[in-house]
TrEMBL record:
Residues 15-111 form the Stress-response A/B barrel domain. Gene3D superfamilies: 3.30.70.100. Pfam families: Dabb (PF07876). It comes from Penicillium nalgiovense. InterPro entries: Dabb (IPR013097), Dimeric_a/b-barrel (IPR011008). This is Stress-response A/B barrel domain-containing protein.
Length: 115
């Protein structure tokens, strides 16, 4: 008689990354938003898209956003993919070249989704 053994393997949940920008000039904001559209189409790792999901937009005015006026949420399959995004991704480097000189501030937080 054979016995079926079920094993559960803990797999890491996707990494969710939130980035907020303060970009005072509206034209600069628009350029950064357009560059995110380019990034969404061109970000690859080993020749394949690797960002699982992305949502980007101008923040809806609200006193609670404390002046951060561009909101970004990206989802990565692993911490390794997010680190690649930060250090090696050519599309992200182009985005940083666009946003870097025009941002007043940036805030980034990331987490493993528990849901």
């Amino acid at each position: 008689m054979s016995r079926l053994t079920l094993r559960t393997f803990k797999t890491m949940a996707p990494i969710e990354r939130i980035t907020l920008f303060k970009i005072p000039n509206e034209a600069d904001r628009d350029r950064v938003l357009e560059q995110y559209k380019v990034l969404a189409k061109t970000a690859t790792k080993d020749g394949k898209p690797y960002i699982l999901a992305a949502a980007v937009g101008a923040s809806i005015p609200d006193p609670r956003n404390k002046g951060y006026n561009v909101s970004v949420k990206t989802t990565f399959a692993s911490m390794e993919d997010m680190k690649y995004y930060d250090t090696e991704c050519e599309a992200h480097k182009a985005l940083k070249a666009c946003a870097g000189p025009v941002k007043e501030d940036v805030l980034t937080s990331y987490y493993e989704n528990i849901l």
